[in-house]
Specification:
- By secondary structure, this protein is of the alpha/beta class.
- It has 2 domains: 266 residues, Crotonobetainyl-coa:carnitine coa-transferase, domain 1 (Rossmann fold, 3-Layer(aba) Sandwich), CATH 3.40.50; 76 residues.
- 37% of the residues lie in helices and 13% in strands.
- The chain has 18 helices and 12 strands.
- The strands form 3 sheets. Strands 1, 2, 3, 4, 5, 6 and 7 form a 7-stranded parallel β-sheet that branches.
- Helix 1 packs across helix 7 and helix 6 crosses helix 8.
- The protein is elongated and about 85 Å long.
- The protein starts with 9 loop residues before the first strand and ends with a helix.
Length: 400
Amino acid sequence: MTEAALAGLCVLDLSQEIAGAYCTRLLADAGADVIKIEPPETGDALRAQPPFPGDLPSTESSGLHLYLNAGKKSVTLDLATPSGALILKKLLRKADVLVESAPPGVMASYGLGYDQLMDEFPELIYAPVTPFGQNGPWRDYTGDPFIAWATGGLMYVTGDPEREPLANGAEPAAYFAAENLAIGILAALLHRDAGGGGQSVETSLFEAVAANNEYSTVLYSFMGAIRRRWYSRHAFRYPSDIMACMDGHVAVLYGRLGLQELAVAFELPELMDHELFLNNTERFKRWPEFEALLRPFLDTHTAREIVEAGQSLRQPMALAPTIPALLADEHLAARDFWVELDHPSAGRLRYPGPGWRSSLSSSPPTRAPLLGEHNVEQLTGDPTGYVTSDLVILRERGII
């Protein structure tokens, strides 16, 4: 293996919550040296969020912290103090990227806004992520991934058409924003390396969701049509649904070959000439009748049998597994997706690995840091000029 793709890149992660943390986790997976700057005593807000092993809360064993901050180093620093801001500027002497998630104007109030840093650090990539962005009438609104899912329009097109919009599971808005910001940072680094200098690259959770709602917005722009909520299925073709079966659920989507192959896969060849197999409009309108035709096969076969039957005829079907089943998935295991990491507080646990892989470079995963674990390593010597006794004083004053 060659050296990791982003080896030598130094990233200061000042962010709180998921979006900034996942962005810098992606950079760490690619080999960047990511230094997590955390408030003294409490640390990143992720450290207080469950789940915890054994359901015992601890600053060091939050599942979100352990996953999102894997591969990083931890330095404690109170940026709201003049001394803390000064120390950050010393760390910026070796940094390429700064990621932060403070409300607009807060970093500037510490003397650490982009406009205040650009003269001293003209090569710096400054990357903020917030709920609604650095400008605009909503810039000072508070929000989180749930709010972004609503405002970005994806909640409107999710759920039962006869009921209210439905939230999605987990926190996809935060991960959308993280991925957008990581791409923006990489593009800015290429621009800088071509002689363009540093710049500010920002995203918001709101815009990240709206950008992923392009189907609905383009549909309206082109046709004046509003996409409806339509249960768990595709809005314009059926079957494209999640269906119950003998031992769980399967995602069924008829492919380019048409429904005749679906009838064969479901051992129902007598239905190949049925009206609902031949007429897409009628099938869409009378979907309960169509599902009833499939029900004898669905009720007597396991999810895996159904998927294998469909895939054997190139019909795109897939398992809709429970979480234990996902953890036991043979395909993910064959691709070495899961990684096990030892942590001095949480113990040995399994985590999702990087969402991408390279044939030429790798950065072996390492555990998440303890709070302030790298204070001595990062705050003594170059570029800060401090010695260990200085850190004792800084710690006593609550600055680190």
